[in-house]
Design a protein that fits this description.
The structure is a single chain. The chain is elongated, with a radius of gyration of 26 Å. Helices cover 33% and strands 23% of the residues. It has 582 residues and is an alpha/beta fold. The N terminus is likely disordered. Helix 1 crosses helix 17, helix 6 packs parallel to helix 8 and helix 11 packs across helix 13. The protein contains 17 helices and 29 strands. Strand 25, helix 15 and strand 26 form a beta-alpha-beta unit.
Length: 582
């Protein structure tokens, strides 16, 4: 059915396709685009020629007075992140960076001024590692970030990272990293002491040396430094440094024998008593993400998500950190249970050979895309910039590879938390990811993904096919942007999964959805009051974006909407529309 739908600001041509028999031919090609027939409409730019059989004309429109009322009600509430708005004005739609950036907040960047500089530099999510600092310090940082969001118009999400059982952690007690010299002798002990004692390291777990023999190798942070066990003194170990390097506070360690990891099953819970206390703290402070350390199975993720739902905190997203052999062996079930994944490469490098890290990283990223879960690649992107103002060329290549793999987000850890050049490190991350995205688009190297059907119910399968088709259409027509209207972010994530060329502007009336979308590749979330009438929402938001000067005459926008029944649209349907700004 062909009609001219006239809004207050534009004219577009609509092609509503409705099957005579909705139970057959679910993926029929219309104008070269697969569409679904359960009341789904596929709306494209003006096409010449006749429309196929079974197509009827309908008139789409709203009374002008009602549209004006809706415009006035929306005008006060459209909230676009100030940094994204600035970037859009400076670079245009295709210049917007799509890879999200996560920064770990630590002593080097916890002041209000430093946090603001990180946000202006491109930080989308602020990560707080609950291993470090006091509860009061974390509360202060969270409230500073929320203050910046409120007063400066930013939209930065907050993530807390649980400590975990910490059976693999040792601490030398010094506030910053130490340089370990070759042949120096160190004592590793489970005795507690305050501050730092020369050449003495405190283990977090009493049984850390059980089953360890003289001659075994003790590896710090996957190879930052190495020691040989030369003597056992009860439960303590005397060790000689065989490979000098940097010894960070609260470092991870592992034991190796004859070139193989010494595996030990401690049978400790994924979440410790302290973790549950930190989770309660995070809920009370309104954090957006909780990253679980040392996840070895899906059950622990489900347990936390169920707990959050009982606390009316279901909007808090749960990320599982992949950092052990066990988590790799149960990868798909952990991804399916979680709301997202963090690839903790340092800890993975402790348990698997270093040369396997690149392929494992790529496989995790691919599976996360297939299962429609955001993935953060973390650890040691710019490790040298903890001490030096410029990165190594290999570090830049490492960033580029993660961007080429289409990871949703990249994360700085020590570089921002304790580094001397945290803001410069973020700038390198931002510039490198933007350049690689631009190159991939220019060379037409979009990451191909064999879609895995996720939906079970018919509505879910329809939404999935609509989003797959919308991205193909957006790329083929070279539209400037994709607009999607979403309550819980599902349609936005399905679009993001396909990694389209144009950016995705996700309009939602739910604050928690807006903050969770900060981790989705290519998604710019906007908070807006949405009415029951989707056509009115579309017209109003385009008008408001245009009034801000963010779109210009001739720009084309592909709109994906999930229309619920209302007075103006009594039939529920989903649609793809292409609108040209007039």
């Amino acid at each position: 059915m062909e009609s001219m739908a006239v809004a207050g600001h534009s004219i577009h041509t609509c092609f509503h396709i409705k099957a005579k028999n909705p139970r057959v031919n679910l993926e029929k090609q219309v104008f070269g685009v697969p569409v679904l027939h359960h009341g789904v409409s596929c709306i494209g730019k003006k096409l010449k020629g006749k429309v196929g059989a079974g197509v009827q004309a309908v008139q789409v429109g709203l009374e002008e007075s009602e549209r004006v009322r809706n415009l006035k009600s929306l005008e006060r509430t459209l909230e676009l992140d100030a940094v994204s708005e600035r970037e859009l004005r400076e670079k245009g739609f295709l210049g917007l960076r799509k890879t999200k950036l996560v920064c770990t907040i630590g002593p080097a960047c916890s002041s209000l001024e430093d946090l603001e500089k990180l946000v202006l530099g491109g930080m989308n999510v602020a990560r707080l590692n609950m291993c470090h600092n006091t509860r009061e310090w974390h509360r202060d940082v969270i409230r500073k970030i929320k203050k910046l969001n409120e007063e400066k118009g930013f939209s930065v999400s907050v993530m807390i990272d649980t400590e975990g059982s910490q059976i693999h952690v040792v601490d030398h007690g010094a506030p910053s990293s130490l340089k370990v010299q070759e042949d120096s002798i160190w004592l590793f002990t489970n005795e507690k002491f305050d501050g730092s004692v020369p050449f003495t390291v405190q283990a977090n777990y009493e049984g850390f040396s059980e089953g360890i023999k003289v001659g075994d190798e003790l590896v710090i942070d996957g190879g930052m430094a190495r020691f040989e066990v030369i003597e056992k003194l009860g439960s303590d170990l005397r060790c000689k440094c065989t490979d000098p390097g940097l010894f960070l506070p609260r470092a991870k360690f592992s034991f190796w024998r004859d070139g193989k990891l010494v595996e030990r099953n401690y049978e400790l819970p994924t979440l410790s008593t302290k973790d549950w206390s930190d989770i309660e703290f995070g809920i009370s402070e309104g954090v957006n993400f909780i990253a679980m350390s040392f996840v070895n199975d899906a059950e622990s993720v489900r347990q936390l998500k169920n707990y959050l739902s009982t606390k009316s905190a279901a909007s808090v997203r749960v990320l599982a950190k992949i950092e052990s052999l066990e988590s790799l062996q149960k990868l798909e079930e952990i991804i399916e249970a979680s709301d997202g994944i963090m690839v903790a490469r340092v800890d993975l490098g402790v348990e698997i050979p270093l040369e396997q890290i690149p392929t494992v990283q790529e496989e995790i990223t691919k599976v996360c895309r297939q299962l429609n879960k955001p993935v953060i690649v973390a650890s040691q992107f710019l490790e040298s910039m903890i001490e030096y103002p410029t990165p190594t060329r290999a570090e830049v290549a490492d960033i580029s590879e993660a961007v080429r793999q289409y990871a949703d987000a990249l994360m700085l850890a020590g570089e921002s938390a304790i580094g001397l050049f945290g803001q410069k490190a973020l700038s390198v991350l931002q510039m490198t990811s933007s350049r690689l995205e631009s190159w991939s688009r220019e060379e037409n190297r979009q990451g191909s993904l064999l879609p895995r059907q996720l939906g079970v119910s018919l509505p879910d399968r329809i939404a999935e096919q609509i989003c797959n088709s919308a991205v193909e259409l957006a790329n083929n027509l070279a539209v400037d942007a994709i607009f999607v209207y979403t309550k819980h972010g599902h349609m936005a994530s399905l679009l993001s999964r396909n990694r389209p060329n144009p950016p995705i502007f996700a309009f939602t009336n739910d604050e928690s959805t807006r903050m969770s979308l900060n981790l989705q590749w290519g998604v710019i979330p906007l908070l807006v009051d949405l009415s029951d009438d989707m056509e009115s929402n579309i017209s109003s938001t385009i008008h408001l974006i245009k009034s801000k000067g963010l779109v210009k005459e001739g720009d084309s926008v592909l709109v994906v909407s999930d229309v619920t029944p209302s007075r103006a649209t009594p039939m529920a349907f989903q649609s793809i529309q292409v609108k040209t700004i007039a």
